[in-house]
């Protein structure tokens, strides 16, 4: 049972009290030494929730910031509000956990990161899976050379979101809030965390059959700086068990499927995630000899609670942000590159005769601004 001496507790304000904002509140309630001091949401129904939680209610972030200075702020509003609200928080000098993706646009995201640096305030971007012990274990296994040199990664992020998911929050149907941004961002962040920087991107997408302004299926091939190649597909309109959501048991609202969603292949072995099965040949590396798996042991814990504990240590300056603003920006740069590459390819057709399928991407991963066909022969014409 959590002790409740509120005077000594860290005071956190939660901005945006929808799906994920409520999960943050629940995580705070289960974490020692911290409490929710304010909830900010223009939805007046949230006032009652604030009263139930015995904390202040504000309809607007400016009202909150002029009334109090919390120890930390969590921004869990629709993505296109993250930057404008985040800048207000860092200007007020308050460490801020901003939900992923960092921003709806790379350029805007940079403004938030630069403002945080200017005001010397730490950002933590809500890529909470990095706080999952499953991921810590896999990172340790890879670093210890358990599977040798990582050569390839394959990630599947497929599920079916019901119509009500979009009807209840219409921002989810608007440009920039599709599954590349909302869902794949998590997987891209994990792939970067486990395998290093992404330097090349080729992508395709199909527009949502349900008529929303975004894709409902997308796929990308990623080139990593260390030479590994990654493939990812995402869809919010495929019925399947192969997603982190269904397989990692992070959140009980998702049914559990005993499957994996990310495969990492190396020169000495392979790992499936989140079940952490390590596959190796019994004797020599040889596809004609038996291959067996063993499961790595971990003690499970809730990454959202771990994220809050880490946020408190950031506030106390005992730890550096595991997902700093710059890190969130780098993940966003890859997500942005996927969007742009997919947009280009909708109007390009691969010229199989010249075998010209490469699209060059700047290796300056913070910018990815040069996604374009590089030579005449690579240009394929406008969609035929
Ligand atoms: N880390 C995760 O696993 C995870 C999961 C879901 C969503 N997210 C991210 O969290 C963010 C929110 O997503 P969601 O699904 O919870 O959205 P949601 O629509 O369920 O909730 C958003 C809330 O923000 C409130 N709001 C709107 N304008 C506001 C304003 N100006 N000030 C304060 N509150 C305002 C809305 O009333 C609503 O209650 C998105 O960026 C999304 O990508 C992260």
How would you describe this protein?
With 384 residues, this protein is α/β, with parallel strands linked by helices. It folds into 2 domains: 6-128 and 303-323, 3-Layer(aba) Sandwich (Rossmann fold); 130-295, 2-Layer Sandwich (Dihydrodipicolinate Reductase, domain 2), CATH 3.30.360.10. It contains 11 helices and 14 strands. An 8-stranded mixed β-sheet has the order 8-9-10-7-11-12-13-14. Strands 3-2-1-4-5-6 form a 6-stranded parallel β-sheet, with helices on both faces. A hairpin with a 3-residue loop joins β12 (270-273) and β13. α8 crosses α11 (325-346). The longest helix has 22 residues, at 325-346. It is globular. The chain starts with 9 loop residues before the first strand and ends in a 38-residue tail after the last helix. Mean pLDDT is 89; it is low at 346-384.
Tell me the layout of helices and strands:
Blueprint: E1 10-15, H1 19-29, E2 34-40, H2 46-52, E3 56-58, H3 61-67, E4 72-75, H4 82-91, E5 96-98, H5 106-118, E6 123-125, H6 133-143, E7 150-158, H7 163-167, H8 179-195, E8 198-207, E9 215-224, E10 229-235, H9 244-247, E11 262-266, E12 270-273, E13 277-281, E14 291-295, H10 303-315, H11 325-346
Parallel strand pairs: 1-2, 1-4, 2-3, 4-5, 5-6, 7-10
Antiparallel strand pairs: 7-11, 8-9, 9-10, 11-12, 12-13, 13-14
Nicotinamide-adenine-dinucleotide binds near residues 17 and 182.
């Amino acid at each position: 049972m959590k002790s409740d001496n509120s005077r000594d507790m860290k005071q956190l304000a939660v901005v945006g009290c929808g799906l994920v904002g409520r999960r943050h509140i629940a995580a705070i309630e289960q974490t020692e030494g911290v409490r929710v001091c304010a909830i900010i949401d223009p939805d007046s129904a949230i006032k009652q929730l604030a009263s139930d939680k015995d904390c202040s209610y504000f309809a607007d972030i400016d009202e909150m910031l002029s009334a109090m200075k919390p120890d930390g702020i969590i921004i869990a509003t629709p993505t296109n509000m993250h930057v404008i609200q985040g800048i207000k928080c860092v200007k007020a000098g308050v460490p801020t956990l901003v939900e992923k993706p960092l921003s709806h646009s790379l350029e805007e995201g940079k403004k938030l990161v630069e403002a945080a640096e200017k005001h010397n305030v730490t950002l933590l971007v809500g890529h909470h899976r990095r706080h999952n012990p499953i991921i810590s274990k896999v990172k340790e296994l890879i670093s210890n050379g358990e599977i040798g040199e990582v050569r390839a990664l394959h990630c599947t992020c497929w599920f079916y979101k019901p119509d009500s998911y979009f009807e209840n929050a219409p921002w989810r149907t608007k440009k920039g809030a599709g599954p590349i941004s909302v869902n794949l961002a998590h997987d891209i962040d994990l792939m970067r965390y486990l395998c290093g920087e992404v330097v090349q991107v080729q992508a395709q997408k199909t527009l949502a059959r349900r008529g929303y302004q975004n894709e409902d299926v997308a796929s990308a091939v990623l080139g990593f700086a260390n030479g590994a190649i990654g493939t990812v597909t995402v869809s919010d309109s495929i019925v399947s068990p192969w997603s982190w959501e269904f397989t990692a048991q992070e959140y009980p609202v998702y049914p559990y499927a005993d499957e994996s969603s990310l495969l990492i292949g190396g020169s000495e072995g392979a790992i499936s995630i989140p079940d952490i099965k390590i596959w190796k040949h019994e004797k020599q590396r040889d596809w004609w000899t038996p291959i067996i798996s063993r499961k790595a042991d971990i003690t499970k814990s809730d990454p959202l609670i771990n994220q809050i504990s880490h946020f408190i240590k950031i506030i106390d300056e005992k730890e550096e942000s595991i997902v700093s603003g710059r890190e969130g920006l780098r993940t966003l740069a890859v997500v942005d590159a996927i969007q742009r590459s997919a947009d280009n390819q909708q109007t390009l057709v691969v010229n199989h005769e010249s075998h010209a399928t490469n699209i060059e991407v700047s290796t300056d991963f913070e910018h990815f601004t040069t996604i374009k066909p590089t030579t005449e022969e690579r240009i394929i014409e406008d969609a035929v």
